[in-house]
Amino acid sequence: MHPTPGLSAVAGLRVGHFTDSRRPTGCTVVLAPEGAVGGVDVRGAAPGTRETDLLSPLNAVEHVHAVLLAGGSAFGLDAAGGVMRWLEERGIGYPVGPHRVPIVPAAILFDLSVGDGGIRPDAAAGYAACEAASDAPCAEGNVGAGAGALVGKLFGLERAMRGGFGHASVTVAGITVGAWVAVNALGDVVDPRSGRVLAGARTADGLDLLDSTQALLRGELPQPMQPGAATTIGVVGTDAVLTKAQANKLAQTAHDGLARSISPVHTQSDGDTVFALATGASGLVAHPTLLGTMAAEAMARAVVRAIEAATGWGPYPAARDLGLPA
């Protein structure tokens, strides 16, 4: 496989952020105004989602019109209402008599511990993210759904570091797969190429990385953590032609990218969720194994890019603040 370097747009998809200036939180929308075949795969034990059941191949609705990723814990699901309003105003949605009902699956992450947790993304935030959406490469770091993200929470929030939002894409034989991810993991972020921890739980003095997986294997016990206090959420999109079952499989294989770049992942306190959107804009059909490989690679790269672009906030440093090569 010879991936195209840099970031490539996925034809038929547009991405926009809203970042709240009052505290680190926000939301990100991936718009599919012409509709896209959707899928989803939910891992971990504490998901916060909306409209995931309709993405099952057993259910009737074939196309979705946007996916929302938001901070704010379950309160952040309100932002999907703003996405629906934006789409409805433009006549986009599933036809029901004289009405159009936009289909907007969503997932949230927990960021209420960063700043004033009473400030959360709402319908106005979702609408603003749509207004900002474009097909240009989107901003990365502590923006949108990744504004309040943290990683390395396993041994207490006081030893955590900044997560963030990242994007990456891979193009092979005329087909592009892109990944957009808000990294808010209980575990550490690891460079899949070297195995080196990039960001995560710090040592007790806060000056170095602990390596959570190795600490667990040495017998160090994690701090009690409320279920749902972490979660990595993302979208993989492609311009390939997929069935609904294949879109669900693409979302499933994209989790391999999370497993390569986050350790531990899919824990009792994470609600890791990945959506898939297939626009079919290329008109091409690819081997499912190729697409799955591309999705996992793009997702792993996107996780690393989120950490590379993150900046410190308050007691939570970014990788660059510790002088660590990201």
Short description:
This protein has 326 residues and is α+β, with helices and mostly antiparallel strands. The protein contains 5 helices and 16 strands.
What does this structure look like?
- This protein is an alpha+beta fold.
- 21% of the residues lie in helices and 26% in strands.
- It has one domain (14-315): L-amino peptidase D-ALA esterase/amidase, CATH 3.60.70.
- Strands 1, 2, 3, 4, 7, 10, 11, 14 and 16 form a nine-stranded mixed sheet that branches.
- It contains five helices and 16 strands.
- The protein has helices at residues 79-89, 123-132, 212-217, 244-261, 288-309, and strands at residues 14-19, 26-42, 49-50, 63-70, 94-96, 99-101, 106-108, 150-151, 161-162, 164-172, 175-183, 188-190, 197-199, 233-238, 262-263, 273-278.
